[in-house]
Amino acid sequence: MTIPFNIGVLQLSMEPVRETVAMATACEQAGFDAFWIAEAYPWWRKHGFEARSSTAVLALIAAVTRRIQLGWGIISPYTRHPVQIAMEARVMQDLAGDRFMLGLGASKIFMKEIGEGEGERVGPATVMRESIEIVKGVLQGDAFQYEGKVFQASVPPLKADAHTPRGVPPIYVAGTGPVLQKMAGSIGDGLLTASITTPAFVRYSRTNLEEGARRASKDPAKLILGSVIVGSIGGDSKKGKEGAREQAAMYLANKVQNIKGSADVLLQSAGLTFEELQPIADAMEKDGRKAAAKAVTDEILRKVCAIAGTPEECIERIEEYRAAGCTHIMLEIWGDDRTGQAKLFGDAVLPHFRK
To answer: Is residue 291 classed as helix, strand or coil in its secondary structure?
Structure first.
């Protein structure tokens, strides 16, 4: 069995809740397969946004949608104990059933923001492994005792007459480096890669994911590889790329300012250097995202490999990602009239992949 190709939308939890819910319903109406919420963090306040709880927002979306898959893409066990993660997952199972997908990641940016993980004896890989083991143990419903290097848990069994779902949703591991990417293949149901993923980085990630799966005697063909990719669309190529240019600017500035070392492989795969990106980060810090977007040259935007431009250009780019081994497109739409952009994707791009 191979994984069906899935095209979804990802949005950060940094905008008014009603706007996010409206975007999710527009994506469902447009025919997208999935809607993911990535948890924002307080750094975005510097640029006119506010961080919100992604688990709370996605629960609201689950209550007003019926078909579209819904994913945490991602939340961090550095900000929630794994037992709490399991509790919030139950809410999603109540509301969304098997539409729910659980994405976990260390989120080094968030770790930096809240002062967690720095200088600790136990690294992110151990935190992730223990978190997944606890989440699975709690959701399975049996009596569960756990004593790890980082986390402990003691949970009694579910009674037979308890009014609650049973079972474990798909759990995906977010990772940029080889250790977590291989872990996604060995103990997870797949891998999620970060913004500024390119086809070259997909190929790198696919190699690590499959190695991890083989070590655990798992079939790599049954694992997803989901990639966050910036994008925008329009009838005119230049206009259609404006939103992607601004979103790329925000992420590239973020990489320079917050997680330098962690982004090395991402940027190397795109053929980008920190020196090349410094003017974008400087413009973002001084004058905001609009100024940073102007610092994104056509060459830098080309290297980012955004899914952007006309419908035909977007189709061509998505095909590149599929050929590289991506199974789940996690498209971060930006720019003017995003609900209108979602509709245009639904009318002019998605049908190509439904043949």
So the answer is: helix
Q: Residue 28 in contact with residue 68, Cβ under 8 Å?
A: yes
What is the four-CA torsion angle of 19, 24, 25, 26, rounded to 10 degrees? Answer: 90
Residue 1 forms part of a structural domain: no
CB 143 within 8 A of CB 130: no
b/e burial code for range 170-194 (CB count within 10 A of at least 16 → b): bbbbbbbeeebbbbbbbbbbbbbbb
Q: What is the mean pLDDT of residues 71-87?
A: 95
Could you tell me the two tokens for 75? 């939340």
* CATH number of the CATH domain containing 287: 3.20.20.30
Whole-number pLDDT of residue 254: 77
What are the structure tokens assigned to 7, written together?
């095209």
Q: What residue type is 67 in one-letter code?
A: R
Residues 193 and 330: their CA atoms lie apart, in Å, by 9
**172 in any annotated domain:** yes
For residue 86, give its domain range: 6-353
SS3 193: strand
Which residues, listed in sequence order, are joined to residue 231 by a DSSP beta bridge? Answer: 307, 333
Angle between helices 54-64 and 17-30 (to 10 degrees): 50
User: pTM, whole model, 2 decimals?
Assistant: 0.95
Give the Cα separation of 102 and 89 in Å (integer).
8
Name the pLDDT band for 106 (thresholds 50, 70, 90).
confident
H or E, element range at 59: helix 54-64
Q: How far apart are CA 208 and CA 319, in angstroms?
A: 22
Q: Which residues are within 8 A (CB) of 173 and not within 5 positions of it... i.e. 6 or more apart? A: 103, 104, 105, 128, 132, 180, 181, 183, 184, 187, 188, 190, 191, 192
The answer to whether residue 157 sits within a structural domain is yes
Cα distance between residue 185 and residue 215, in whole Å: 9
The tokens describing 11, both together, are 């949005």
**Count of structural domains within the chain:** 1
In-domain check, residue 150: yes
Q: What pLDDT, in 10s, does the model give residues 254-290? A: 776 555 566 788 889 999 988 899 999 999 989 998 9
